[in-house]
Amino acid sequence: MIDALVSLGNGFGVALTPTNLLFIFIGVCLGQIIGALPGLGPSAGMALLLPITFGLPAATAIMMLAGIMYGGMYGGTLTSVLVNVPGEAASVMTAVDGHKLAKQGRAGAALSVSAIGSFIAGVGAVMLLVFVTPPLAEFALRFSSPEYFLLAVLGITATASIGAGSPVKAILTAIFGLMIALVGTDPILGSERLTFGMTELLDGIDFLPVAIGIFGIAEVLSSLERSYDSEPIRTRLRDMWLSAKDWTACRFSILRGGILGFVIGLMPGAGPTVAAILAYVTEKRFSPHPEKFGEGALDGVAAAESANNSAAHGALIPMLALGIPGSASTAVLLAALVLQGIRPGPGLMVEQADLVWGLIASMFIGNVILLVLNLPLAPVFGALLRVPYEYLAPGILVISLIGTFATTLSLFSVGLTLFFGMIGYLMMKADLPRAPVVLAVVLAQLMETSLRQSLMLSEGNLWIFVQRPISIILLLLVIGSLAVPMLGLLTRRRMERLRRSEAKISIATK
Questions:
Q1: What is the CA radius of gyration of the chain?
Q2: How much of the chain exceeds pLDDT 90, in percent?
Q3: Which phi-psi region, left, alpha or beta, contains residue 323 (left: φ > 0; alpha: ψ -120 to 50)?
Q4: Which 3 state secondary structure label does DSSP give 193?
Q5: How many other CB atoms are found less than 10 A from the CB of residue 236?
C-alpha cells in the first residue's frame, strides 16, 4: 500500500507539469463536448482524435485520450436531461428520469446530482484503481506465452459472455476483426498473406483506419439519419445547487451505483452501459419510492451516472494490469499505446511506470476539473445542443479524414477509413456489435505470437496450455465465457417455445 501511494505521488509529479495539465484540460473539455453531441460517444471521439496524438509524448497523449473517455461520461448527461436524446449509450438510463425531471423544472437538480455523483464515483474508482492494479499486474508477471495466448482469447470471448446482444454475433464480429489483423506479412516467416497482390497491404491494415471508420465515421453516418429537432430545455446557474433533502435522498444511490459500476467495469466486455442499466435496476429495488422511477426519480439519475463513470475508470484495471481492454473506449486507449510504440500487458506498470502512474494521477485532476466545469458551466455546454447536427457532421468527417491522411501521407489509408466506415454503418444497421472487432484487431498480434511461441516451445504439443495452474484457470474461463452465453441463448429459445405452445393451447381451449 505504501509503495502504491509513493508511486501515485510520483505520478502527480508527472501529471502536474504545465504541458500535461494543459492536455488533461483539453481532453476533459473535448470529452464533455463529444459526450454532449448526440451520436458521438467517447470511443468514437477518441478514435477520431487519435491522429492528433502523433508527435505528442506518450504520457501526454494517453492522459488527453483518457480525459476524453471519462469526460464523455459527464457530457452525455446534458443531452439526456435537456433533450431526452442520450449523448452516448451509457446515458440511456439517465434520459429515462432526467428529462422527466427537466420537464418538472428540475433540470438543474438532475445535472447537479449527475456531476456530483460522477465526481464522487470517479474519484472513488481511481482510489481503488491505485490499490487493485499493482497486485494484479504483479500476479500477471508470472505469465508465459501460453498464458498470454489464453489471456488474449479471454479478452475477446468475454465480450460475448458479458456484453449485451447476441453472443453468436459478438464471436462472428471478433473473427472478422482477427481476419483484418491477419492481412499483411507473416511476423515469423515473412511471407505475404491476404494481401491480394496489393503492395499497400504488405504492412498490414493499420488500426487507425479501422477505429476511425468503424466507430467514428459509422456513428456520424448513423446520426445523420436521426433528427434532433427538439428544443433543449434551458437551465440557469442558480438552479444547479442541490438541496439538503436531495443530497440525503441520493447519497446512498451514489455509493451503490459507484461500487456496482466499478465491479462491472472490471469485467472485459461489459462497460459503462451495462453498469448504468444494472445500477438503475438495483436502485429501483432499494428505493422507498419505486413508483417514481420512469416518472422523474432523482436517485435513479444519481445511481446511473455514478455507475457509468465508475465503470469507465474501472475498465482501465484489466487494460493496465493485463493488457485486456475492459470496454470499447479502453480498446482505443490500448491502441493509442501501441501507436506510441508501447507494448501493453502485465509488464506495462514496470516498463512504463511514469506513464501508468501519471495517467492514474491525471484522473484525480481531470475529475476535479470536470466538477468545476459542470456545476457553473452546464448552461453554457447546453447551448451547444442548439447547433444543428447537420452542420457539425461534415466538419467531423473532414477533420477525421485529414487526420488519417496526415499520419500516413497515403490516400489508400483514407480509402480504407471510408471502407471501414461503411462496414461499421452496415454493422449498426444489422445490429452487429462493433467493439469485438476493435478488441480482436488490438489483441490479434499478442494472440498469434504467443500461440506460435507456445507451439514452438512444445514442438506442437497442445498440452502446454494445461501444464500450469494459471493456464488451466484461464482455459476454464475461456470455456466458461463461451458456454455461459450459449446456455443462456438455448434457455431463452426454450422459454420462447414454451410460451408459444402455451399460447396455442389457450387459443385451442377457447
A1: 23
A2: 2
A3: left
A4: strand
A5: 10
Give the whole-angstrom CA distance, residue 294 versus residue 276: 15
Contacts of 57 (CB under 8 A, 6+ apart): 19
Q: What is the pLDDT of residues 173-231, one digit of tens each?
A: 888 888 888 888 887 777 888 888 788 787 788 777 887 788 777 877 877 776 555 55
> Where does the pLDDT of residue 384 fall: very low under 50, low under 70, confident under 90, or very high at 90 and above?
low
Residue reference for cell 473532414: 398
Which positions ≥6 away from 153 have C-beta within 8 Å? 447, 478
Instruction: Indicate the pLDDT class of residue 25, thresholds 50, 70 and 90.
Output: very high
CA-to-CA distance for 239 and 494, rounded, in angstroms?
51
Each residue's pLDDT tens digit, 260-289: 888 877 766 556 776 777 788 788 777 777
CA distance 254 to 309: 11
pLDDT tens sequence across 181-195: 888 888 777 788 888
Is the pLDDT assigned to residue 148 strictly greater than 60? yes
- Cα separation, 210 vs 464, whole angstroms: 34
Give yes or no for a contact between 46 and 329, defined as CB atoms under 8 angstroms apart.
yes
The answer to whether 307 and 315 have CB atoms below 8 angstroms apart is: no
DSSP assignments along 276-296, one per residue: HHHHHHHHHHH-S-GGGTTT-
Burial of 508 (0-12, 13-18, 19+ CB in 10 A): exposed
**Phi, psi torsion values for 228, nearest 5 degrees:** -115, 55
Does residue 442 contact residue 334 with C-beta atoms inside 8 Å?
Answer: yes
d(CA 99, CA 156): 36
* Closest among 437, 439, 422 to 335, alpha carbons compared: 439
Query: Residue type at 34?
Result: I
pLDDT in tens, 42-77: 777 787 777 777 778 888 888 998 888 888 777 777
pLDDT of residue 136: 74
Beta-bridge partners for 192: 185
Instruction: Return all residues near 213 (Cβ < 8 A) that are at least 6 apart.
Output: 416, 417, 418, 419, 420, 421, 422, 423, 424
